[in-house]
Amino acid sequence: MTIPEYDTVFQQVKTLLQEHAQLQAPIKDDTDLINDLGFDSLKLMEMLEEVEDMFDITYPLNDLSNLQTVKDFVLQIQQIVGSE
Amino acid sequence: MGILDKLNAMAVTRETLLPEGINPFNVVIEEIYSATEGSIDGQRVILAGTNNYLGLTFDPRCIAAAQETLGKEGTGTTGSRMANGTFSGHRALEKELALFYGCNSAIVFSTGFVTNLGVVSTLAGPGDVIVLDADSHASIYDACKMSGAKMIRFRHNNMVDLEKKLGRLGSKSANTLIIVEGIYSMLGDCAPLAEIVALKKKYGAWLMVDEAHSMGVLGERGRGLAEAVGVEQDVDFTVGTFSKSLGSIGGYCVSNHRELDLVRYLSRSYIFTASPSPASISSVRAALKVIGSEPQLRTKLWKNVEQLYQGLKQLGFELGADPSPIVAIRVPTKESALFAWKAILVKGIYVNMVIPPAAPAGLSLLRCSISAAHTSEQIDYILKTFADLKPMMTTAMA
Predict the structure, then answer these.
(1) Alpha carbon B167 to chain centroid distance?
(2) The complex's ipTM?
(3) Angle subtended by helix axes B376-394 and B296-314, to nearest 10
């Protein structure tokens, strides 16, 4: 599958993050999902269902452990979309 | 940041949620009088949150079997199954479990939790895929992590999502283990097992069913959901626990795949932990006989389930979808759950309080588990109390 542009994925992810974040913080590449936005593992898993629908992908839970920033998240989604 | 900082964060949460009085996550049962009555916080209470579905913890035959073995074989094995911790009782129980399920192989582990750790992390490894239901027990999630397999979650009981995820795996589906539960521990609902089996066959995957809460509860002979649905031959691995219907402690896996026996040599949670005590094993063997020979216990259990479930439904409580021995009442907030839980305890009833992340989908629950040993009068009292406390149980508190 064609890999979508970084900025396109970023904009879509930004909307989701704003909707699900437990803490209010500006969403930039280096925004920390846990410390800045207040996500815990459960909240992240709930949001992943929407990510899966949005990009029509399967998001393996193993990838969550490498996730720290918004940029990590966007890059992972790009990588998964490209591999499916 | 120091290593203890995350614990200090937990202390803040604990103090916010549990400002004073008895802590629902640290309850001490000071005395236990029977399968359905005990003493908590100095007060006699009906136990309606114990998973003791058939009430066998106080069955005289199970107690006598344990006592006899305790005198003969001592208090513990002091070793792992692989070393000095396999006594004749452990081996006999494995044979009896295989016979009970009509399977070729059975392995006994030390708890239900370590059964999942041992079985899943040995069956699946790097290069394999595990597709698990989102509401799976923590032991299944931990086991998947330990395995090193690719870990994919499908939405709870959602067959469209399961099929979508299996379909995307392509040839990998032959190396895929689907994991579901017979009865889910928090909401008490069953897996749609016939549909899961159909998908498993369609995509050539493998299937493991955790019957922890359904063994002794479902099926003509008490073997669980797979028996009740008539798909036992299509389940590759069945796991379960001794700590619910069987009234003891320990766990097991049964399978028609003879390779299961090899798990003994590879499973860290079999090799590196002490085996169940001989007395526990004897009580399980006695309980297994009771389950196999006394279907009337299940009849009584389901009569009690109906009384509680339909009674609560008539009172207008929001419950799990299916009547089952786990009857979960949804309450609006964590704070409401705590307040109501304490009020219920003061009235002499112990239930489980479950809040996120232990409860699925951000729910707060007052979780009752019902037993064949409960009397109709006890259930009437539970219903009357819940009716009295309903305003408190259904009002959102912050």
Answers:
(1) 30
(2) 0.91
(3) 30
Domain count, chain A: 1
Which of B213, B245, B336, B374 is flagged as catalytic? B213
Count interface pairs A-B at CB distance under 8 A. Answer: 26
B348: left (phi over 0), alpha (psi -120 to 50) or beta: left
CB contact (8 A) between residue A49 and residue B165: no
pLDDT one digit per residue (tens) for chain B, 398 residues? 688 887 887 888 778 777 667 788 889 999 999 999 999 999 999 999 999 999 999 999 999 999 999 999 999 999 999 999 999 999 999 999 999 999 999 999 999 999 999 999 999 999 999 999 999 999 999 999 999 999 999 999 999 999 999 999 999 999 999 999 999 999 999 999 999 999 999 999 999 999 999 999 999 999 999 999 999 999 999 999 999 999 999 999 999 999 999 999 999 999 999 999 999 999 999 999 999 999 999 999 999 999 999 999 999 999 988 899 999 999 998 888 998 999 999 999 999 999 887 777 778 999 999 999 999 999 999 999 999 999 988 887 76
Domains defined along chain B, listed by start: 5-53+295-394 (3.90.1150.10), 61-293 (3.40.640.10)
Q: What is the CATH number for A48?
A: 1.10.1200.10
Q: Is residue A1 part of a domain?
A: no
Check CB contact under 8 Å for B153 and A61. Answer: yes
Among chain A residues, the shortest Cα distance to B163 is held by A58
Residue B336 to residues B16, B70, B163, B312, B333, Cα–Cα distance (Å): 14, 45, 38, 18, 5
Any domain includes A74 = yes
Whether B357 and A84 lie within 8 Å, measured CB to CB: no
Q: For residues B299 and B379, give the distance between their C-alpha atoms in angstroms, rounded to a whole number.
A: 16
Asked, for residue A57, whether it belongs to a domain, the answer is yes
